[in-house]
Amino acid sequence: MPITTCIFDAYGTLFDVAAAARQAAAEPEFPQLSDTWAELANHWRLKQLQYTWLRAITDAHTDFWEVTQNGLDWALEATGLDGDDRLRQRLLDLYWQLQAYPEVPTMLAALKAAGLNTAILSNGSPAMLDGAVQSAGIGDLLDDVLSVQSVGIFKPDARVYDLVGNRFGCAKDEVLFVSSNGWDAAAAAGYGFTTAWANRAGEPVDRLPWTPQHLLSDLTSIPDLAAG
């Protein structure tokens, strides 16, 4: 069936998760970040994801904001920056104002012009996602923002992907699902979506039972993929 609905992961896909650490490093109040911000950002993101997986398999769900803070605290200690409350608070504040990648607004506008449904499907809490969407100025280009909070478990549980069909009344093969996380794009492919992995870092394909149908370096070509 033709694609009717384009669904995007949020963090790392539409929004640059390294932006908070990069912006803080550019501020004169935090010279200690000048040489370590990239390492901090990588640690923060990896621990954030690991904690969602561990909480999912141990039935210990919590709000994504708590997971985000837990990941940052680990990353700060790992980079020798723990104990600086001002730095910690600044990084958390900036996480609510993440920048969208440059191609995102034009890409979403093209999908809307083609008459397609567009939405976010994210581990993020509704409040966090609203902050990012409003900060990036893309709210009018999205039909909905779907959060795992409504089902109480993180990706890649199938109940999360079920939210798409429940909301838009579409079949699985009408959905193009886009994520910067290889494991997410792979799991969504196993679920039955057509998937695209925005592999911005050029990482190897994950060794999982499923693989994304499309591998991209950014989101520029999404409208062409959706058009078939």
Please tell me about this protein's structure:
- By secondary structure, this protein is an alpha/beta fold.
- It has two domains: 5-15 and 99-227, Rossmann fold, CATH 3.40.50; 19-95, DNA polymerase, domain 1 (Orthogonal Bundle).
- It contains nine helices and six strands; from the N terminus they run E-H-H-H-H-H-E-H-E-H-E-H-E-E-H.
- It has a six-stranded parallel beta sheet, with helices on both faces.
- Helix 1 (19-25) packs antiparallel against helix 2, helix 1 packs across helix 4 and helix 2 packs across helix 3 (64-78).
- The chain is globular, with a radius of gyration of 17 Å.
- The mean pLDDT is 97.
How are the elements arranged and paired?
Layout: E1 5-8, H1 19-25, H2 37-57, H3 64-78, H4 85-95, H5 104-113, E2 117-122, H6 126-136, E3 144-147, H7 158-168, E4 175-179, H8 182-191, E5 194-198, E6 214-216, H9 222-227
Parallel strand pairs: 1-2, 1-4, 2-3, 4-5, 5-6
